[in-house]
Amino acid sequence: MEKRLITSALPYVNNVPHLGNLIGCVLSADVFARFSRLMGHDVLYVCGTDEHGTATEAKAIEENLTPKQICDKYHKIHDQIYKWMQISFDAFGRTSDKEHHEITTEIFKRIYDNGFIIKKTEEKVYCPTCQKFLADRFVYGTCPHCGYQDARGDQCDNCGKLLNPEELKEPKCKTCQTTPIMKETEHLYITLDKMQKDIQDFFDKNKENGWTYNSIKITENWLKGNELKPRAITRDLKWGIKVPNEYINGEKVFYVWFDAPIGYISITKKHVKNWENWWKNPETKLYQFMGKDNVSFHSIIFPATLMAYNKGLKENEQFVKIHRLCATEYLNYEGGKFSKSRNLGVFGDDIMNLDLSQDLWRYYLISARPESADTNFSWDEFQEKVNNELVANIGNYINRVLTFLNKNYEGQVIDYKDDEKIISIKKELQKEFDIVIESYDKTNYRDAIKHILHFSKILNQFFQEVEPWVLIKEDRQKTQEILSFMVNTINYISTMINPIVPESSKKICDILDIKISNFNELNFNSIKNQKIKNPTIIFNKIEDDKLKFFKEKFSPENIHGKLQEDKNNSVNKMQTKEEFSIENCQIRVGEVISVEDHPNADKLYVFNIDFGDEKRQILAGLKSYFTKDELLGKKLLYITNLKYAKIRGMESQGMTIAAEDDSEKVSVLEFDAPKGTYLSFEKNGKIVECKNSEIIDAEKFFNLNLKIENGVIKCQNLDLKVLGKDPITSVKNGLLR
User: Of 108, 214, 402, 454, which has the fewest CB atoms closer than 10 Å, so is most exposed?
Assistant: First the structure.
């Protein structure tokens, strides 16, 4: 058996965790911890809140609280959510604790003494009014690339370019609006370049321990071409772990990326008496769980930090380094990113107040776990998974067996004799059971669920074949023996589902009047000569009316959500209001002069459109349907008097109009016409151009119910054309969006 030290990436404390955060870190690690315990491994599961850095200071300003008050507030929220979700931490702590400050400083000092820290003097942005150096998020100004006047010091939300504060034109201090100056400041750097070979050797050896594909690829990209460079470990901030004055001039704190991973060690030290028996034991295997955005910190930077510390120490004095890195992709929400500010998605504080058990959330999130690619939370899929898998498959089998046994034999389980059919079924079940164990151990949880469901499906079919309601009339003893065998298979199911749905597993064990079984102790004859208790329903369905309520409550209020709503709603429901018509719109032909990927959205392009008299940036969800070359140089149709919208941090100054048919085929509307030409229509014998400049809401435009019939654009019984021509499009009949 192994000594397994399990960590999940420390969640940042400045916000409420959403479902994507839960599955990416704490829930994935919890399933592995529960499984490992049931396999008999010695397990310690550690986590806590990451509480230092600029984001905490910014949140404190936003909520008019001190950084300490922000950390206290959100640490409590995180703790409540994880407890409700039945996350089985052995230690859950905070990086603001004094133990963390002490051990981070201790590790830094040894790294410094071992020669892996250097000093650099650089010019950084400084506010003479606030009398402090400004972190990236505390500087704003004009983007040097696109001219956007409210760009942050780390990134422009308009064009998406990554920035340094000193690159901004006309920069301002976010706190006092003073124009900052450049001032010299000294910082400490860890020399990753000096450890390039050691890091490479460490990675080459340990990636064979079952690292996920994305963690391997991300690390390889970092190491490619000997690109490791010295990396700053200090910042000019107030909130953080103070760097001892003898090591650097001025008041500095450790950069949050440097101190946060050390939190795994400090939290263990505070909450576990024999903490060194975990962190300084060569027998310990460290398993770390995280989202893909955290990979480089755990595969390169944290191991490098520990390598620099361990130099010159005996093996039993060294900190253990990562054995297996388990990284997920992203879980999105109904086709978009989770966003608290945009009211998009379901968050931890939401699920605690909904009428659904923890286990239903746990099961769905694990079944939708983004193991090899981004996945999407869907209310419809949530209902389908619960109703068809938990209720109709697993729950159905358990309920039928236990109810029949209780009704006809007062719940009495007896010893049974194998017959040919039971021997055959056992072989099938054992095969599935072995795959479940292997899948859990490799953290392939979706495969584990697949084979648990097949295990239960085999038994449902067996129950139907046996027909105990018929057999009991012919042979009561044989029927009771078969049911007793089935009770033992329910014990298997209870153990297999325990890492995912622990409360439901406990309910099953309570009915069977047993304790949860260790995976290694399970056999098909362990329960006999005892009575079960009155069975109860293990899993409850998600009814349609409840699903409808959830959908309405968490409906994303943005353009993408509205587009999907319009697509699904009937024509009658979208009847055009009399006071708004196509004449209120401005619709023009524009030429695509550049196409770029949106830096924060997988399905969006960023267009630069030339309308002849002006150029605009317009975002469009066409990436799944067209390559850049297929769109570049095209003259397409755009609505240009919509209220500007920010989508994933970038501004869209209009909307591309595209056609979609019933098969979800999408086509753009191409016109052979001069740039800037307006869409027009004939009304009362006159040509009316769609050139109204009054700004309109997207909702009003979508309510017009534009469509294309036989290649002709139609709206309100009018034919819409450009210079009397119909568009060139592969979709001849469908809706416009």
Answer: 454
